[in-house]
Design a protein that fits this description.
The protein is α+β, with helices and mostly antiparallel strands and 194 residues long. The protein has 6 helices and 6 strands. α1 packs antiparallel against α5, α2 packs parallel to α6 and α5 crosses α6.
Length: 194
């Protein structure tokens, strides 16, 4: 990954540009991967999403942005407040929009944040929601996982949806940022966790 300089917070316009540039520079390196015909696609996809979230979570621009959305009156090491700030940001600023039929692609969380800063919203499907949420939490030390779910009754044998699993204070919490009405609903059916 190329070396990224920290954005100047005094210049919001430059910060947007830094997010878009950093996302564009990493896009080619991170999202070119071939699926192995010997391994189920769902395993490979959630493993790749988990790896991307770790890489983006280690990006200093991501960390600085996440710090900027934290509540100003937050207590020392207030993990629930940190979690809630990130969850609220993703729920309120990323709108679900499906990928084109027959195509699956993932949008860099840096690009998504840049679009949110520029337009007040961004669009993405479930993997984009998971990657943004997990990357943001990873940047502040949370342990996250990607969960594949068999969610389509018309295709009951396929994993057709992904959501997040976060470990907090020894407990596992599911978070589905696409489910704007009830994001903490525990998924049912077969799950695959990376």
């Amino acid at each position: 990954m190329p070396l990224v300089t920290m954005p100047d917070l005094e210049n919001v316009s430059q910060w947007r540009t830094d997010f878009i540039q950093a996302g564009a520079e990493t896009e080619q390196n991170l999202y070119t991967f071939a699926l192995d015909n010997e391994t189920p696609d769902a395993n490979q996809i959630i493993t790749a999403l988990s790896n991307f979230a770790e890489q983006y979570g280690a990006n200093p621009i991501m960390r600085q942005f996440v710090e900027s959305i934290m509540p100003r009156n937050m207590g020392n090491n207030d993990l629930p407040a940190q979690y809630n700030a990130v969850a609220s940001f993703v729920l309120n600023n990323l709108t679900y929009m499906a990928d084109p039929n027959g195509v699956e692609y993932v949008i860099s969380p840096l690009i998504l944040i840049g679009k949110i800063l520029e337009n007040g919203t961004a669009y993405g499907d479930c993997d984009d929601h998971v990657l943004l949420f997990n990357s943001m939490l990873n940047s502040i030390g949370f342990e996250t996982h990607v969960v594949a779910v068999k969610a389509d009754v018309l295709q009951p044998d396929l994993f057709t949806h992904v959501l997040s699993l976060v470990k907090l204070a020894g407990q596992n919490y599911f978070f589905d940022a696409c489910n704007k009405e009830n994001p903490y609903e525990v998924p049912t059916g077969d799950l695959l966790i990376a």
